[in-house]
Design a protein that fits this description.
Elements (H helix, E strand, L loop, with lengths): L6 E6 L9 E6 L9 H12 L9 E5 L2 H14 L1 H4 L3 E5 L5 H11 L3 E4 L4 E2 L17 E2 L2 H7 L5 H5 L7 E4 L5 E6 L4 E5 L2 E5 L4 H8 L1 H6 L4 H10 L5 H11 L7 H11 L9 H17 L1
Parallel strand pairs: 3-4, 3-5, 5-9
Antiparallel strand pairs: 1-2, 6-7, 8-9, 10-11
Helix pairs in contact: 2-11, 9-10
Length: about 290
């Protein structure tokens, strides 16, 4: 694939001025500037994974392996109209999301970016820390802070209205990109309703499906989570242990997702609310586009 030679045919819906959909040619040469590290990364990435990006109805960018494995189950089980669409799903590590920015914007492709809020310390090198309100904690995620929201305060991001997570682009053709990141989850813990603030897909999945993990019997991470759920810890300690559990040196989030698919019927998994809102947005957007 050579972006200096590539031309992309963008199919547009019918408008008041046209009875049938039309196609426009978008020149992709120069999308990434001169030949540099970003150009090389994108070229290699698309060549080996998702050239279908150019023919999709929409795209979903996800943070890691667990989302990449479980999202198709979510869509198949709960979003019938979206399941009928040609959606390309790209697993793109958070630190590389900005590298796809110029391509997504040039393709004018309706896109949902599912990413982690990545809570970090406000000072120094912004080391990852337990997400809590009222402590000046920030998000260190580029897609949130620099690309689609332009805000890094955790407190503000947790209460940001949903419409502020959508970015409209007018050129070269109108389209939208929406970002979805973790927000607080209310769970019943030891007889009381508490607020859990997740920072990754995995801990948000645990909080959203707390009752299921409290009953799940399995080895590995799922077994560790089950043990924590049944230790009757005070919630702050439980919250901290879940946070640290997914940051161990030998933690495989891909294995966690595989074990979950194997040991738990995916239809029983409740979709984390931030992902649910994002998928409903994309489903509705594509319906209107048609």
């Amino acid at each position: 694939m050579d972006f200096k030679e590539l031309r992309y045919f963008k199919r547009l819906p019918a408008t008041n001025d046209s009875i049938v959909p039309t196609s426009k040619v978008i020149n992709l040469s120069g999308v990434f500037g001169e030949d540099n590290e970003t150009t090389r990364f994108i070229t290699r990435y698309l060549r080996t994974t998702h050239c279908d990006l150019f023919f999709a109805d929409g795209a979903i960018l996800v943070e890691g392996a667990a989302e990449y494995m479980l999202l198709p189950h979510f869509i198949h089980n709960s979003y019938a109209k979206l399941n009928q669409r040609y959606i390309t799903l790209l697993e793109i590590n958070g630190r590389h999301s900005q590298r796809l920015k110029p391509l997504i914007e040039k393709l004018c492709l309706p896109t949902l970016v599912i990413t982690d809020i990545d809570s970090g310390a406000p000072e120094g090198y912004h080391a990852h820390i337990l997400p809590e309100r009222g402590k000046g904690i920030i998000s260190t995620n580029y897609a949130i802070t620099k690309w689609l929201v332009n805000e890094n305060s955790l407190d503000k991001l947790l209460t940001l209205p949903e419409d502020k997570k959508v970015k409209d682009f007018a050129t070269p053709y109108p389209f939208k990109i929406r970002i979805a990141y973790q927000t607080s989850v209310s769970i019943s813990y030891d007889g009381s309703d508490v607020e859990a603030i997740p920072s990754t897909f995995e801990d948000c999945l645990v909080y959203t499906n707390y009752d299921l993990f409290s009953e799940a019997k399995c080895d590995g991470l799922i077994g560790d989570i089950n043990n924590l759920c049944n230790q009757k810890l005070v919630f702050n300690d439980f919250h901290e242990k879940i946070y640290n559990l997914f940051r161990g040196n030998n933690v495989s989030k891909a294995s966690f997702a595989l074990d979950l698919i194997y040991s738990v019927d995916p239809q029983k998994l409740q979709v984390p609310e931030y992902i649910n809102k994002g998928l409903l947005w994309l489903q509705d957007l594509l319906d209107k586009h048609e």
